[in-house]
Amino acid sequence: MLYFWLSLAFVVGMIMPMQAGVNSTLAIHSNGALWASLVSFVVGSIALLCLAIAMRQDWPVLADLRQAPWWAWTGGFMGALFVFTGAILAPRIGATTMMALLVAGQLIMSVVLDHFGWATFPQHDINWGRILGVLFLIAGVVLIRMY
Predict the structure, then answer these.
(1) Of 35, 125, 116, 115, nearest to 80 (Cα)?
(2) C-alpha–C-alpha distance, residues 104 and 140, integer Å
(3) Which is nearest to 86 in space by CA: 141, 27, 39?
(4) 120 contacts 97 by C-beta, under 8 angstroms
(5) Can you give the pLDDT at residue 33?
(6) Residue 54: its pLDDT value, please?
(7) Is the pLDDT of residue 130 over 80?
(8) Closest by CA position to 17, among listed 76, 81, 75, 101
(9) Exposure of 86 by Cβ count < 10 A (0-12 exposed, 13-18 middle, 19+ buried)?
(10) Are 71 and 62 spatial neighbours (Cβ–Cβ below 8 Å)?
(11) Which of 40, 50, 86, 142 has its CA 20 to 30 A from that of 30?
(12) How far apart, in whole angstroms, are the C-alpha atoms of residue 40 and residue 24?
């Protein structure tokens, strides 16, 4: 089962640069990245609603949602920022540079999140292997941007 989850992460990662290009194209045809991002989120929300109904998921209980910490509500904002920024960056810096920088930022924040065990992540101390991995990724970003 572990290989399934690892494969899923890899495949979804492959979709991320495609999403930025698709949203960038939508921005050309919708008067800007802000509208394209909104359309993207509406389509995504409808898809998730249909999936929840098809899977017969129980509706969330409002009282349970109210107990979530304030920062648990910021995920939608972060997703919107990612989609909006991707639509702007894709035609300006290209898929490779954009994704290299996004992955570098994701990895650095992931090391911090793991180190502190924040936001339901299991705690994993920062170690030399993780530090070297981040440094190699940053070197990769520099090489990608230079050539």
Answers:
(1) 35
(2) 9
(3) 27
(4) no
(5) 94
(6) 97
(7) yes
(8) 101
(9) buried
(10) no
(11) 50
(12) 11
Residue type, 83: V
Q: Residue 145 pLDDT > 80, yes or no?
A: yes
- Radius of gyration from C-alpha coordinates of the chain: 18
User: Which residue in this structure is represented by tokens 């969330």?
Assistant: 60
Q: How far apart are CA 63 and CA 57, in angstroms?
A: 17
111 token code pair? 């090391």
Query: Residue 69 carries which DSSP code?
Result: -
Name residue, tokens 């904002």. 77
* Amino acid identity, position 101: L
The residue assigned the tokens 């509500």 is 73
Cα separation, 121 vs 110, in Å, equals 9
Helix H or strand E segment including 3: helix 2-28
144 contacts 96 by C-beta, under 8 angstroms: yes
Listed in sequence order, the residues at least 6 apart from 71 whose beta carbon sits closer than 8 Å to its beta carbon are: 119
